Amino acid sequence: MRSLIIQFRVIFALILREARVRHGRSRAGYLWTIVEPVLLIGALTFLFSNFRSSSISGSSFAVFFATGVLPFQLFRSSSQYISMAIEANGALLNYPHVSKIDTIIARSVLDFCTHIFVITLVISFQIFAINAPFPADIPMMLFVIVILMAFAVGAGLCVALLRQVFPSFANVYLILMGPSFFLSGVFFSINSIPKFFRDILVWNPILHGVEGFRTAYYQGYRSPDLDMAYLFWWAFTLIFLGLLAERTMKKMIP
């Protein structure tokens, strides 16, 4: 019990430190985490203003796009932020009570809370400003966010450990994240594309997170290819492999 209390205090201190380093250097630091998705949604909505949303949803492209970009941004930014946790806190690892996993947990908690706040704010603004529909199933939306965040933690943990051995792997991960923005259902519904391409895209676990979030948001939205279990097993496998690799590296390199 004493060890758990000490670890909790360490993680809480790391969260406070991360919040200050990430958002406390300027008054606009935390505000940028809100402005960034809003600007992205606004700019791309303007560029694709001729697009019409699904007849099922019956809402504007801005709302449809928001339900895609918000969960995608949660995964992409969180996994990248978590992947840099070990390097950013390298000096603190010299303290006996601070471990690599503690830095991963601290960044995960901070980023999860940040994205919950941003998603809530953006959706609330759209409801009051452009008459967007109210979310149909908020508990399901939260469930999807949690699973997607677990997937981001697993991916970030694995990338962080790989960077310890292959520093250039960070660039590889950034390259992979580039096309994923266009292949994860952010701009389109999986039901709207031909079956041949659909059968390929469903292998992308991020797509299931985006479609799951959108299905929970819209009352009549249906996605026959949605498989949340597939996303869950991706998250579970990456976290398991990451923890196993961390333990192995700890034994090999004390």
Summary of the model, kept short:
With 254 residues, the protein is an all-alpha fold.
Percent of residues in beta strands? under 5%
The tally of beta strands, per DSSP, is: 0
Major sheet attributes: none
Global shape: globular
Number of domains: 1
Mean pLDDT: 83
Identify low-pLDDT runs: 52-59
Task: Give the CA-CA distance, first to last residue.
Answer: 25 Å
Helix/strand class = mainly alpha
Count of DSSP-assigned helices: 10
Q: What's the order of the H and E elements?
A: HHHHHHHHHH
Radius of gyration based on Cα positions: 19 Å
**Level of helix content?**
over 70%
Topology:
Blueprint: H1 2-23, H2 29-47, H3 61-83, H4 85-88, H5 100-129, H6 138-165, H7 169-183, H8 195-201, H9 205-217, H10 228-252
Characterise this structure.
- The protein has 254 residues and is an all-alpha fold.
- It has one domain (2-252).
- 73% of the residues lie in helices and 0% in strands.
- It is built from 10 helices and no strands.
- It has helices at 2-23, 29-47, 61-83, 85-88, 100-129, 138-165, 169-183, 195-201, 205-217, 228-252.
- Helix 3 (61-83) packs antiparallel against helix 5.
- The longest helix has 30 residues, at 100-129.
- It starts with a helix and ends with a helix.
- Mean pLDDT is 83; it is low at 52-59.
Features:
254 residues, mainly alpha, globular
